[in-house]
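queue> holo job accepted (zinc ion)
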Amino acid sequence: MSALADALAAAYRRLDDAAMIVASAGNLSARTDEGMVISPTGARADSITGAAMVPMTLQGTHCGALLPSSEWHMHAAIYRAFPAAGAVVHTHADACTALACLGERLPPFHYMLAEFGGDDVRCAAYATFGTEALADAAVAALAGRSACLLASHGMICHGRDLDAAVTTALRLESLARQYLLARSAGRPKLLSPARMRAAHARYRSYGQQPESPA
Ligand SMILES: [Zn+2]
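queue> job finished
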């Protein structure tokens, strides 16, 4: 557990270094046999440690001196809904949040949208932060996807492990920034369903080394 908690603290600092978490506006967790371990409420990058991470069940029972992130419902609901999710990252990163504040999805303006599992990244309906209603809205928007925006709030994503979830968050923020930049200069051309199908097919073989000769 302590190695996982230390990895969570390192990932929190990595997101802070990338300006993905500003003044505690973000949280992250990893799945455990008992449920999950999650960053505490009011975490700060300059003082976060593995010892501050909060082990808890997916039903909300936690132990330790600190209270879990106020968004623990959203993290727990994602682990319950998506068995392949090994880690969850939630932030108010600028570009994702700007788009979410327009109440818009991230459309297929770039082939890399395929990385998130579909042809777009949806924007979940608004619900008050920290509620089960927000957790339900996020799970619905994540169907078939590894990431979604949260209306007038931010973004949330999951990955098979902590490194994958952090990478997904960084990539989504970069794409959201590129989309807003393109939109500020004109009307981005969207890729057709056929072009996105081809991108998905390409991704299925992308990054796989051919089997080494015997
Ligand atoms: Zn939030």
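queue> Strands lie at 26-31, 36-38, 54-56, 87-91, 123-124, 147-150, 154-159.
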